[in-house]
Amino acid sequence: MLKFTFLGTSSGVPTIRRNVTALAVHVPKGRDWWLVDCGEATQHRLQRTPLSVHDMVGICITHVHGDHSYGLPGLLASASMTGRKRPLILIAPLAVKAWLDATLLHTELFLTFPLIHIDVAPNQLVHEEAGLIIERHPLSHRSPSVAFRFDVHTTRRKLDRAALAAHGVPAGPLWGRLQAGEDLTLDDGSVVRAADVCSEQTERAVAVIGGDNDTPSLLQAACADAQVLVHEATYTEAILQKVGPGPTHSSVQRVAQFAAQRGLPNLVLTHFSARYDNPEGMAELEAEARLHYGGNLFLASDFDQYELGTDGVLNRLPPLPRHRKA
After folding, report:
1. How far is CA 203 from the centre of its chain?
2. Which sign does the torsion angle of CA 3, 34, 289, 138 carry?
3. Would the CA dihedral through 267, 305, 272, 23 be positive or negative?
4. Verdict on whether the full-model pTM lies above 0.85
5. Percent of the chain residues past pLDDT 90, beyond the cut
6. Phi then psi for 215, rounded to 5 degrees?
7. How confident is the model over 126-143, as a mean pLDDT?
8. Which residues are responsible for catalysis (predicted)?
9. pLDDT at 127
10. Domain boundaries along the sequence of the chain
11. Catalytic annotation present for 67
12. Catalytic residue among 67, 151, 212, 302
């Protein structure tokens, strides 16, 4: 029901293997997708995926820091230069919008599409449309930061073949019309109501995607019925103790303990300090996570794809081909 493509998984600075933070969230509406955070060079990462900026519905920015937002002007400029007309939603702090407006003005960048800004501060509900609700939940960081909760509902109609036969509906196009919810009048004058030959099945998926945060327990309410938590895990607990409280980030241990205590079935860690960008470093992070969390655990890499199935299990998909679009 929900798919995730990680476009950047490093904290603060990029490395050879990891760019700074960006995550594509695919919702079950055609090719539509949302971008959560947009670190510098996010558009270069997109060039190496099947994702199109023309299918992007909106961008959610968790906080103002550059490793989560510096990619915005370039991405918007490229969208304009490739002819985007569809309005784009920007859910972001006022400071991000002010900086972006100044950049557009002073670099003479004129967008070819409406940019609809929604401030993250005033309301918990930041976006709602058929089948999708996005909420923001405040976190603890040296700059105001939020998590975004994606709540997706999909209703499917399943045909009852026995009921169709009982009503004398022949197999063919009429079945499709009934499945689409249309009531029909047959040739003999009898009326067949879609509700009489179809059953509705509602599927739901909830994912919480955190910005920078040193207190995972602030997500208690947001994660109440979530199946997936994506959260920063910048350091091991030992390094976090040495670094001190200044950076206001989480350790792997603290996130893993929260996920275990909350009973979250799927946990994806990201936003790793560059010091861990080697096999030994990642093994150290994973070992600390597994010590405190026994659920379905992933440490994200750039270009990783995951899909949350209707059974509530998150699975890693085959890696994306890493080549530029023609």
Report:
1. 18
2. negative
3. negative
4. yes
5. 90
6. -135, 85
7. 97
8. 67
9. 97
10. 2-316
11. yes
12. 67
